[in-house]
Design brief:
The complex is a heterodimer of chains A (about 200) and B (about 90). By secondary structure, chain A is mostly helical. The relative contact order of chain A is 0.08. Chain B is built from four helices and no strands. The longest helix of chain B has 30 residues. The termini of chain B are far apart. Classes of the chains: A mainly alpha (about 200), B mainly alpha (about 90).
């Protein structure tokens, strides 16, 4: 077959041509990646990997679903790959981070008999806290300081509001696993907010 | 009798799954007696509401985002190479 014919043949594929993917769905894919990965470079990488994978898997596009849904499905896998890769990098670079994310993690809050080591502070009136924007800013900073795996899970569950079943399936963990890690994350965030935001609020009176 | 550690677990899990009747009663009794766990309950609630605000902010940012022109160009080149290989 001549080159021109071959091109024509490829471009009449039901999934369309890769050039139109980028024009028609590029920004939608980028937004999805950005929302999950929170980093423009990682988002770009994920979009590129997804489109390359889509190019290779074009023959398996079944029609039916829209091209965008199909592409987002592939992107979702690439985003998960990024997270798994990050988790591995973090573990290699920083053994403490791994230890922290795998340990039971309740010891710093509770004594051996299961009571809070220190009486919890009163955080004051929630409405006021939320109206003054700093609380959210501190929360975001505390979230960024968490072990990556925990931060990611918490992000998926609480910010992107993905359901438990989907998260467990995507990350191959059990619901109990997930709940324990979410709980540990909440305890960690609470401690962090206590020692950063509350102190700061106290200083400002 | 629930410990604070148990109660804190249930307060957290309550956001993920419905508690059993037994768990709800145990928790209610514990909260009635324990000021720290009542504060933990309020703090969880505040964190959850703050996460919702954060969600709206992050979504607004992402909604406004476009794939930057230079990134688009890099991806276009990578795809063209991949496309050529697919044709070979």
């Amino acid at each position: 077959m001549e080159e021109a014919n071959l091109n024509k043949h490829l471009d009449e594929h039901p999934a369309g041509s890769p050039e139109t993917w980028l024009d028609e769905h590029g920004s939608a894919l980028y937004r999805y990646a950005l929302l999950h990965l929170r980093d423009p470079h990682k988002a770009e990488d994920a979009v590129q990997e997804a489109l390359l994978a889509a190019l290779g898997a074009r023959g398996r596009f079944a029609g039916g679903a829209s091209v965008r849904t199909w592409l987002v499905g592939i992107l979702k896998h690439k985003v998960m790959d990024q997270f798994r890769r990050q988790a591995r990098e973090v573990q290699l670079e920083d053994p403490d981070d791994r230890a922290e994310s795998d340990a039971p993690g309740d010891e710093s809050d509770f004594d051996p008999s299961g009571h809070w080591r220190n009486k919890l502070s009163d955080w004051g009136n929630p409405e006021e806290m939320l109206e003054r924007g700093e609380f959210v800013a501190f929360l975001q900073r505390c979230l960024d300081a968490l072990p990556q795996r925990l931060a990611h899970l918490f992000w998926l569950r609480e910010v992107l509001e993905e359901d438990t079943k989907t998260i467990c399936k995507d990350l191959a963990i059990t619901p109990n696993n997930l709940w324990t890690m979410l709980h540990r994350t909440r305890l960690g965030l609470r401690r962090c907010l206590d020692s950063t935001w509350l102190k700061d609020a106290g200083r400002r009176g | 009798m629930l410990t604070c550690k148990d109660a804190s677990h249930l307060l957290s899990e309550r956001q993920e799954r419905p508690l059993s009747r037994r768990e709800r009663w145990g928790l209610r009794l514990h909260l009635w007696m324990c000021v720290s766990c009542r504060r933990f309950e309020q703090q969880l609630d505040l964190m959850r509401r703050a996460m919702r605000l954060l969600r709206r902010r992050v979504e607004a940012e992402a909604d406004a985002a476009e794939l930057p022109a230079d990134a688009r160009e890099r991806i276009r080149r990578a795809l063209a190479e991949g496309h050529d290989r697919a044709k070979d």
